[in-house]
């Protein structure tokens, strides 16, 4: 499945090469979907019997590929941790605890409303 290969690519050091026909086909699919930037060999020429072994080389995962990785979730995986926000500044900006903290720490918390009153 190409998405499993995309996860494998994301965990690898780039650039990474793949040589099996199945992997090359999956890289071709990922490239056509715009999820990776890769060199993919041309389809095999039946008249050409000699030459280098074909390989697909993935150079990078695109932004679209990273978004897809963030979106997919497989059973048994732990959920990705959520960002914790901006800490105290985020709480104050949302006004959730701002009034209580201003009462407790009036000298340390300073906002434009208090400065206009002075």
Summarize the structure.
With 118 residues, the protein is of the alpha+beta class. The chain contains six helices and three strands; from the N terminus they run αβαββαααα.
Please give a handful of descriptors for the protein shown.
single chain, 118 residues, alpha+beta, three-stranded antiparallel sheet, 42% helix, 11% strand, globular
Helix/strand order, N-terminal first: HEHEEHHHH
Structural category: alpha+beta
Tell me the Rg in angstroms: 26 Å
Name the beta content range.
Answer: 5-15%
**Overall mean pLDDT:** 75
Polypeptide structure, described:
There is one protein chain. This protein has 118 residues and is α+β, with helices and mostly antiparallel strands. It is 42% helix and 11% strand. It contains six helices and three strands, in the order αβαββαααα. Strands 1-3-2 form a three-stranded antiparallel β-sheet. Helix 1 packs across helix 2. The protein is globular and about 40 Å long. It starts with a helix and ends with a helix.
């Amino acid at each position: 499945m190409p998405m499993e290969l995309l996860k494998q690519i994301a965990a690898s050091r780039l650039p990474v090469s793949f040589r099996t026909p199945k992997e090359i086909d999956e890289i071709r699919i990922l490239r056509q979907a715009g999820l990776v930037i890769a060199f993919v060999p041309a389809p095999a020429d039946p008249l050409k019997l000699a030459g280098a072994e074909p390989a697909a080389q993935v150079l990078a995962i695109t932004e679209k590929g990273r978004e897809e990785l963030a979106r997919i979730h497989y059973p048994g995986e732990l959920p990705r941790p959520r960002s914790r926000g901006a800490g105290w500044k985020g709480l104050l900006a949302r006004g959730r605890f701002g009034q209580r903290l201003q009462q407790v720490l009036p000298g340390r918390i300073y906002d434009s409303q208090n400065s206009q009153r002075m």
